[in-house]
Amino acid sequence: MMRNTVKLLAVAAIGGALVLALFSSRASGAAAPAGVTIGGVFQLKSAADQSFCMDIDNQGPTPRLILSQCTAASSQRFSFTRGADGFSLMIDSQGNCLSTGAKSAPSFFGVSDAPCRYTGKERWALSLTGTLTQGTKGRCLVIPRVAANVSVNLVPCQEVALQQWKLSQ
């Protein structure tokens, strides 16, 4: 029990430190140069089931963001970097940024990875509740259900477990 409590506190401290680093550098104006990793490398686990992590599927013509069982795969490792217009969630092993894709249905957007251009489509904010919001349009990363190979997409933000993520090292 004590061991799990210590582990939980460590993960919470990492998440809190990352959120503070993101917001304090923005507020103070003393931002890190573009492309500098902030907060280390981590996995993003689904709050609905922490045995599932965000992953990049490179099998099709366009890489897409999916949910997979958590492993040590480099495609499940992410870090925040400072861009010219805000923070970008970046795939650590490939140096690509998560980016919104084409609109495929009302209120439904795909997410893929591509070379970083530090545009608004790559700007991400992590809230204290664990939602990852894209830009300023109020859309958050979501999974339709907890299962392997389901797509991670963008929908209007709500405080639900399927839109919440936990940082893990």
Describe the structure.
With 169 residues, the protein is α+β, with helices and mostly antiparallel strands. The protein has one domain: Trefoil (Trefoil (Acidic Fibroblast Growth Factor, subunit A)), CATH 2.80.10. Helices cover 16% and strands 41% of the residues. It has 1 helix and 12 strands; from the N terminus they run αββββββββββββ. Strands 8-9-10-11-7-6-5-4-1-12 form a 10-stranded antiparallel sheet, covered by helices on one side. The longest helix is centred in the first third of the chain and has 27 residues, at 2-28. It is globular. The two termini are 20 Å apart. The model is unreliable at 1-32 (pLDDT under 50).
What does the secondary structure layout of this molecule look like, with pairings?
Blueprint: H1 2-28, E1 37-46, E2 52-57, E3 64-69, E4 78-83, E5 86-91, E6 96-105, E7 108-115, E8 124-126, E9 132-134, E10 139-142, E11 153-156, E12 165-168
Antiparallel strand pairs: 1-4, 1-12, 2-3, 4-5, 5-6, 6-7, 7-11, 8-9, 9-10, 10-11
Form type: globular
Helical proportion, percent range: 10-25%
Q: So, CATH architecture?
A: Trefoil
> Taking all residues together, what is the mean pLDDT?
75
From the alpha carbons, calculate the radius of gyration and give it in angstroms: 15 Å
| Number of DSSP helical runs | 1
Which spans have pLDDT < 50 for at least 5 consecutive residues? 1-32
Secondary structure: number of strands: 12
Q: Give a quick account of the main beta sheet: strands, pairing sense, barrel closure.
A: 10 strands, antiparallel
CATH fold descriptor: Trefoil (Acidic Fibroblast Growth Factor, subunit A)
Structural class: alpha+beta
What is the terminal separation in angstroms?
20 Å
The strands making up the biggest β-sheet line up spatially as 8-9-10-11-7-6-5-4-1-12
SSE order, as H and E? Answer: HEEEEEEEEEEEE
As for the number of domains, it is: 1
Approximate strand percentage? 35-45%
